[in-house]
Specification:
Shape of chain A: globular
Largest sheet of chain A: 7 strands, mixed
Radius of gyration of chain A: 19 Å
Largest sheet of chain B: 2 strands, antiparallel
Mean pLDDT of chain B: 83
Strand order of the largest sheet of chain B: 2-3
Order of helices and strands of chain B: HHEHHHHHHHHHHEEHHHHHHH
Oligomer: heterodimer
Radius of gyration of chain B: 27 Å
Distance between the termini of chain A: 42 Å
Number of helices of chain A: 10
Order of helices and strands of chain A: HEEHEEHEHEHEHEHHHH
Strand order of the largest sheet of chain A: 1-3-4-2-5-6-8
Mean pLDDT of chain A: 81
Strand content of chain B: under 5%
Shape of chain B: elongated
Number of helices of chain B: 19
Number of strands of chain A: 8
Structural class of chain A: alpha/beta
Low-confidence stretches of chain B: none
Distance between the termini of chain B: 87 Å
Strand content of chain A: 15-25%
Chain lengths: 255, 471
């Protein structure tokens, strides 16, 4: 299928599995899994998106470049994945339009896997969003992008420690140079198929009175909707008085 | 599940919210940041300081400084324009050679050999084909140079710095700072600039950005500016300075356009589009070495070809119209001559003439066919020899020949200056108008965006003409 005659060591290893990968561009019908691409602005989400789908969505070095939700697809080991590129946001706690688009998709679009793209150079700032997303979904992969720049900046990240602390797989990439993309695809498929089970980090440093309230409320929510994974996050939003979530709870959209 | 239980949950949450107090949001945010700091402490290490960050911030100190920020911006704009203008010359003339001097005669002789009637051959080959060929020859090379250069700057990370520099000016004029980005896009193509306004969240500020994008001198208008500036403005100064004078006058027009953009934004935000300026966080991303070939490829596919295709779609019918009005006669004059005569009076008031006004009406689909249309109509109206015949668009090979025709048509320095002004201040091309409609979904704002610049153009050229004639 490929025009390349000689296969590099990478291509023959299980991680790459080039024979199993087919970039589907915009053909996204009959997919088996939905994968959301979230992250802070300017972390290279669109570049990761292009690397996965073979599309050439315009990328640019300024925040807020993705103006519409882009969709694409790829096929890996006979399974079809639909990929949704969400607008970049710093948080999901306020109410601007772009944040709403991203949050609504994570909540109501219920992706099978959420790939959170983070800038390896600014991990601490990026974790703000990562930790919020981990309250919403429990099937996630952290894509530590811009590793080439991090290397130049002499930043070393212990992927294992990070993965253990966050409770989700961590893949280091330099999407501009296609580095780490095969590993990312492999990890996405393992999370989607349940080979990797995530135990996402839950926000810990909350004052005890709030923690108590959250526990009480989320227990009630779990009683009402058994098996719900993001009861804590719903509790956070209810305590905040988020009218949209209250509405969604009433109409049953959340479950 | 029952409604009752859900009501219970909501009631409970109201009660708990009361108990935990106002600080919930802040406490939660602090909690998240504390968690993040803990995690980072364990897994991220920095070796040997953060050298590159310091280099980045050093560059930022210079390019966003109060003293050097603007000069550097204009310098970069100047270099990009200069490369576009100079670089586009050769491929443009090669394309013109191929499409106009080789293929066109071949099509003509082919048509006559199969016995095509003269009107069909004229309509299709002299009308539709020539208009399309013109747009490709004139528009493709500058776009193929400008868009990649622009995208390289974008990839490098310079655009957010431009937005940062201009933010204050935009804020003073009641517009969004991100309009700086869409304005820069407009220098390439107004239609692309209008689409780019999607990055502006507030509908009010987005409308301002859409309406005023036309004041960014687009690629289709640069050739007109350059040609007229070279022939008339270059001629008033000693010949050794003529090209500098021409380039400066063109940049002057572009800067004047920016002034009009701020002025109109300000006027709109004080009248029909009143409102608060929204604040936004602008992250200055790190500088990144652009990936040259990839950028070249994507900007050619994404921007150049799409914009070119839309221009062709609109240019083809325009070519047909030009041919038709020059070849359909009412009594003993063609429609074109009749229209030119009736526009002449109004044109004189504006320091222009009937030919120019008619050319601008015919050339609504694409600004790049303005100059060829003007030449063709001038030749026809003055009856001087030269050119290729009624309704056939052409551009003369030497600038002297062009100048001779224009001077025979009664052109003066005033006509030239006002044409440059009118080229800046007139309705957007139909591609842009269509895009504005698609983006705003509003007939009203599409009409405002289309008519407002023409009215400004009439006022400005009228004033310039009256003042000029006083002396």
């Amino acid at each position: 299928m490929d025009t390349k005659v000689v296969k590099s060591a990478c291509e023959t290893c299980g991680h790459f599995n080039a024979d199993g990968l087919k970039k589907l561009g915009i053909k996204t019908d009959n997919f088996d899994f939905v994968v959301a691409l979230a992250g802070n602005p300017n972390t290279g989400k669109s570049t990761v998106f292009n690397a996965l789908t073979g599309l050439r969505q315009h990328t640019g070095n300024w925040p807020g470049k993705t103006v519409t939700r882009a969709e694409g697809g790829f096929q890996y080991n006979e399974q079809k994945y639909k990929l949704v590129d969400l607008p970049g946001t710093y948080s999901l706690l306020s109410t601007s339009t772009d944040e709403e688009v991203a949050r609504d998709f994570l909540l109501f679009g219920r992706p099978d896997v959420t790939v959170i793209v983070a800038d390896a150079n600014r991990l601490e700032r990026n974790l703000n969003l990562v930790l919020q997303i981990l309250e919403i979904t429990d099937k996630a992969v952290l894509c530590l992008n811009l590793m080439d720049e991090a290397k130049r900046n002499n930043i070393v990240i212990e992927k294992r420690t990070l993965a253990r602390d966050l409770g989700i797989p961590v893949v280091a990439t330099s999407a501009r140079y296609n580095e780490g993309i095969p590993e990312l695809i492999q990890t996405i498929s393992e999370v989607a198929n349940g080979t990797i089970v995530c135990k996402p980090h839950r926000i810990k440093n909350v004052p005890s009175n709030i923690e108590k309230a959250v526990k009480k409320l989320s227990a009630e929510i779990e009683k009402e909707f058994p098996g719900i994974s993001n009861s804590r996050w719903i509790a956070f939003r209810l305590l905040e008085g988020d009218s949209q979530i209250i509405e969604a709870l009433k109409t049953g959209e959340l479950v | 599940m029952t409604k009752k239980n859900i009501e219970h949950i909501i009631e409970l949450s109201n009660e708990l919210r009361w108990q935990i107090g106002d600080d919930f949001h802040d406490n939660l945010t602090e909690g998240i940041y504390a968690d993040a700091a803990n995690i980072v402490k364990d897994s991220v290490h920095t070796e040997k300081g953060e050298k590159r960050f310091r280099l980045d911030s050093k560059i930022d100190k210079i390019v966003t400084s109060k003293t050097f920020g603007f000069p550097i911006m204009f310098l970069i704009l100047g270099v990009v324009l200069w490369l576009t203008i100079i670089g586009a010359n050769y491929p443009s003339s090669m394309l013109a050679n191929l499409l106009l001097d080789t293929i066109h005669p071949a099509l003509k002789s082919g048509a006559s050999s199969i016995g095509m009637p003269w009107w069909l051959d004229g309509f299709l080959i002299d009308g539709v084909y020539l208009a399309v060929a013109w747009v490709i020859a004139v528009m493709l090379p500058p776009m193929a140079i400008f868009f990649p250069l622009f995208t390289l700057l974008e990839d490098f990370g310079y655009l957010p710095r431009v937005a940062f520099n201009l933010d204050n000016l935009f804020k003073k004029s009641g517009a969004h700072g991100k309009q700086a980005l869409t304005m820069s896009m407009g220098f390439g193509c107004n239609a692309a600039g209008v689409v780019a306004t999607r990055i502006i969240d507030s509908p009010r500020e987005r409308l301002i950005a859409i309406i005023t994008n036309n004041f960014s001198l687009c690629n289709g208008r640069w050739p007109t500016q350059i040609l007229i500036a070279t022939i008339f403005i270059g001629a008033v100064v000693p010949s050794s300075f003529s090209s500098v004078a021409a380039l400066l006058s063109v940049i002057g027009i572009a800067v004047l356009g920016m002034a009009f953009m701020f002025l109109t934004s300000w006027a709109l935000s004080k009248t029909v589009l009143k409102g608060e300026v929204s604040t936004f966080n602008l992250e200055l991303p790190p500088y990144r070495p652009p990936r040259f070939w990839k950028t070249l490829y994507t900007s050619l596919i994404d921007r150049t070809l799409i914009v070119l295709w839309r221009a062709i779609v609109f240019a083809a019918p325009a070519g047909a119209v030009i041919w038709l009005i020059s070849n359909i006669f009412i009594g003993d004059v063609s429609i074109a001559v009749w229209l030119i005569d009736s526009f002449d009076g109004f044109g004189w008031l504006l320091g222009l003439n009937g030919v120019i006004l008619l050319a601008y009406i015919v050339a609504i689909p694409a600004n790049e066919i303005v100059i060829p249309t003007i030449l063709m109509l001038t030749v026809m109206a003055t009856g001087i020899s030269g050119g290729e015949g009624a309704g056939v668009m052409f551009e003369l090979d030497s600038m002297d020949a062009t100048a001779d025709i224009l001077k025979a048509g009664g052109w003066t320095l005033l006509t030239a200056i006002n044409l440059m002004l009118f080229s800046l201040l007139h309705n957007p091309c139909s591609t842009t108008i269509y895009t504005i409609y698609k983006e705003t979904k509003s007939t009203k704002w599409t009409v405002v965006a289309s008519v407002l610049p023409v009215i400004l153009g009439f006022i400005v050229t009228f004033l310039v003409a009256q003042i000029w004639r006083l002396f």
